[in-house]
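Narrative of activities, Objective 1.

The group set out to show that a structural description can be obtained from nothing but a protein's sequence at a throughput compatible with the screening campaign. Below is one input-output pair from the validation batch, recorded exactly as produced.
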Amino acid sequence: MRAAVVEAPGGPEALVLRDLPKPAPRPGWTLVRVRAFGLNRAELMTRRGESGDAVRFPRVIGIEAVGTVDASVDDDAPPRGTTVASVMGGMGRAFDGGYAEYTLLPTERLMPLETHLDWEVLGALPETFLTARGSLDVMGLQEGQSLLVRGAGSSVGLAALGLGAAAGLHVIGTTRDPDKADFLRQRGADDVLVDQGRIAGADVDGVLDLVGGTALLDALKAVAPGGIVCATGLLGGTWVIDGFEPMGEIPTGVKLTTFGSAVIAGERWVEALQEIVDLVEEGRVHANLDRTYALDEIAAAHAYMEANRATGKVVGIP
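Output recorded for this entry:
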């Protein structure tokens, strides 16, 4: 089979197309024919060698994939030909992931789906939309309340706009580019705020912050008393806030939480992904597919994503 392998950390050129043996199923592991895989910023970091001891090279990276069950020895595995998705759980890090024609995955991590969506559209959904859905779930906003999505032009941001609108929230999207305002409205935003580095005083019920770093401190001042901020993304590239003082930085009555996609596992998330797939099939939510790349174009796909040129999800097709 063909696979894109990172043999040693580096730039996009570190992704090399190789012919590898097709994996054989074994107890607890099911072989999946990959039909599409989403690209994620976490994979940029892995490719650059920023995942530390968690990833050993050479490695087929890719933290998500959609496809069909090809073979399994497990009685509890979905039948051959079943459409499945898989996200996280060590994919592309502890074991080979989605950048391949076939991938061997833990049977318990498979998410069976019923759908008529094209593969590239389905491939745009799992990691991005489940991250957005999980963030909204932990925020606990109710129909009619206001949600501000900071970094709304990112793939997770666009997913949150669509899911928030479908849930009956009043959704506000932020962007640094005024020319993107109409696009964000098409994707579910009721209002658009041009972010010039400060959203304090927005007085909303909740902020989904996808920028991180010191922008999070500003976001805490953008919610009304009793509101909540969910820190999910790190588009700003800053992992640590120096000198963060919770007693001084978090306004009284404002809640701060976070969501990490590493928790995505189990039947609850299979049901959530099926609900998302249904919303996309019904036309109530846009999949936000930016563009697709063939497997032998994966280095160009990484360069495109790393240059922040994508508006939505980039998807690979083996």
